[in-house]
Design brief:
CATH topology: Cytochrome Bc1 Complex, Chain D, domain 2
CATH architecture: Orthogonal Bundle
CATH class: Mainly Alpha
CATH superfamily: Cytochrome c-like domain
Number of helices: 9
Helix content: 40-55%
Shape: globular
Number of domains: 1
Largest sheet: 3 strands, mixed
Radius of gyration: 21 Å
Structural class: mainly alpha
Distance between the termini: 46 Å
Strand order of the largest sheet: 6-5-7
Number of strands: 7
């Protein structure tokens, strides 16, 4: 039988190792992500998006080079970090994806309703993902500064705030259940506090991103769609006002954060 002295000594030896293992796990994840950044598959989607932007397509055989993303027709650099925003021609606050749908319909002649109904990762919806990836990459390193001067932009922000804290569904979850406090994690995943600026390249400032776990490129719309799934809510329609409102809420809260999109995620 081991003496109490030996048991105490063994425990004392194990405690530093346990702390070291916990630290090395966190550091290992960070190192893993850093290594993947050098060969981020998002680069392929970015290249495809640039080609699609310049290519004459659709019933009208036109490119998207005159698409107005908020800074004037054809201006892409800097647009991502100022979206979602109000657009006078549609009378709506739009994010990059819903705005691309508008441009593809008006400039190229695509059926907007069909674009909305197409599942993620298929057909023209996959092309929208590539386009959004390229658009985001043109503002990489810039800092978010979403406009709030228009009354509709302020209304949508308040709607997004209410949606963020709304609890419901069979799990009684809200967005804030995971992202409303500091120092929360699920399994090995850190959960940023999105009620304020979480920092450079975190939360809203990291999407679109390539998901290593499923080999897919996800936009913010796709990310939010999966959040609704985890809350056991029905999937919102692509470009629904509530998803854009959540983007405005997170984007305004992230003012000053540096965009690293397109990023890479687990």
């Amino acid at each position: 039988m081991h003496s109490p002295r030996w048991a105490a000594l063994a425990l004392a030896c194990m405690l530093p190792l346990a702390g070291q293992a916990q630290k090395s796990t966190t550091d290992g994840i960070a190192e893993y992500r850093k290594m993947l950044e050098d060969g981020n598959p998002a680069d392929l989607f970015e290249m495809k998006g640039e080609e699609l932007w310049k290519q004459a397509r659709g019933p009208k055989k036109a490119s998207l080079e005159q698409c107005d993303l908020g800074l004037g027709p054809g201006v892409v650099k800097g647009a991502w970090v100022r979206l979602p925003r109000f657009f006078a021609d549609t009378g709506r606050v739009q994010d990059v994806e819903s705005r691309l749908v508008t441009c593809m319909a008006t400039l190229q002649g695509f059926d907007a309703a069909e674009l909305v109904k197409t599942p993620f990762g298929r057909g023209e919806k996959a092309n929208i993902t590539a386009l959004a990836t390229w658009v985001s990459a043109q503002s990489r390193g810039q800092r978010f500064d979403l406009p709030q001067s228009h009354p509709e932009e302020r209304r949508i922000y308040e709607l997004g705030k209410r949606a963020f804290f709304f609890r419901g569904g069979p799990m009684d979850f809200s967005c804030a259940s995971c992202h409303g406090e500091d120092d929360k994690r699920i399994r090995l995943q850190d959960l940023p506090n999105l009620t304020r600026n979480p920092g450079d390249g975190i939360g809203f400032a990291a999407w679109p991103a390539y998901r290593v776990s499923n080999g897919q490129m996800w936009t913010m719309q796709h990310r939010l769609n999966d959040c609704f799934r985890q809350q056991r809510f029905p999937f919102p329609e692509y470009g629904a006002e509530v998803t854009i409102a959540l983007g405005v809420y997170m984007g305004v809260n992230a003012k000053g954060a540096e965009s690293i999109a397109p990023a890479i995620k687990r």
